[in-house]
Amino acid sequence: MATRTTITTTAEPESGEGAQEMMEVDKRIESEESGDDEGKKQAVCIVTDISQQSLREEQNGENLTSDSEIPVDMETISLDPEAEDVDLNHFRIGKIEGFEVLKKVKTLCLRQNLIKCIENLEQLQTLKELDLYDNQICAIENLEALTGLEILDISFNILRHIDGLDQLIQLKKLFLVNNKINKIENLSNLQQLQMLELGSNRIRAIQNIDTLTNLDSLFLGKNKITKLQNLDALTNLTVLSIQSNRLTKIEGLQNLVNLRELYLSHNGIEVIEGLENNNKLTMLDIAANRIKKIENITHLTELQEFWMNDNFIECWSDLDELKGAKKLETVYLERNPLQKDPQYRRKIMLALPSVRQIDATFVRF
């Protein structure tokens, strides 16, 4: 899953007039608190001045913010007709237009702009990747001509429905994170799809993905899903993430024999079960659930990471379930009753000698 990071840095005065003024204000206020009348008078004047100055700066800041939201005129942006990778991240583009000059473009990045409508891309027949992350798009439309598209990202927009993708039969990765989608639908033609990211939406059920048999990674975290179901056809799935949903039971995974990473944290699961056919698991995350006992996982001998923090595990003998996992390197058990034991780390090391990390701390030898 691709990681998206935005860093904003705000510089503060460390020296000079600004810093000196702030130091003086601090001293005067301190004098006011100590009952110094002269200090009080001076403090009131200075605080009033600073308040007025802050108000002016705030008003100016508001004007600046308002100005920054005015879409840029595309005629001011120079596009190289020979370019294969075009990155127009945070350019304040309000409308997609003028891109027909890009005869060789393969990757077009329009993230963090002011785009409301997907349009005027029909002539970009060479396009393989389209990034519309963080705009104001409310519908997936006008993409029918881009039949060679392999990666599409419309995350952090205001989509309510999945639609308009029927012709994108070469699509391999689809990112629709953080929208307002309440149903998985209209994906049946995307049989080449390998990664589907639908985290942070309003989805209540896993459905309509039976034809996505080439799917390798499925991300459904932070939705409203209550049941693990309709996954039988996804036999090639290696990564499944359904964190922060409303699951109460581990089930419906019997056909996912190639699953290697399973993320089920922050749900309401009470029992570890239903993993009998998932022998290839290397990562099992069941943190922050309601589990009282580690059980039914002795067959998971390929495990490398086991996350069970924030549950109700209290019996040290439960760790015997992990002794067959000779490659186990990372174990998270913090914030379970077990952690109250003064010998907590030592007992884990003795029970699981292959472990190199306990919780967030590496084991010292």
Automatic annotation (TrEMBL):
Gene: PPP1R7
PROSITE patterns named among the record's database cross-references: LRR (PS51450)
Signal peptide range in chain numbering: none
Disordered as annotated region, ranges: 1-41
Keyword Repeat: yes
Record-linked SMART domains: LRR_SD22, LRR_TYP, LRRcap
Domain U2A'/phosphoprotein 32 family A C-terminal: 341-359
Chain intervals with Basic and acidic residues compositional bias: 24-41
Biased composition (Low complexity): 1-10
The organism of origin for this protein: Thamnophis sirtalis
Keywords, in A-Z order: Leucine-rich repeat, Nucleus, Repeat
Entry's localization field: Nucleus
Record GO cellular component, one term: nucleus
The family this protein is said to belong to: Belongs to the SDS22 family.
TM helices/strands, residue ranges: none
Pfam family, one: LRR_9
Gene3D superfamilies (UniProt xref): Ribonuclease Inhibitor
Domain of life: Eukaryota
Annotated protein name in UniProt: Protein phosphatase 1 regulatory subunit 7
Annotated SUPFAM superfamilies: L domain-like
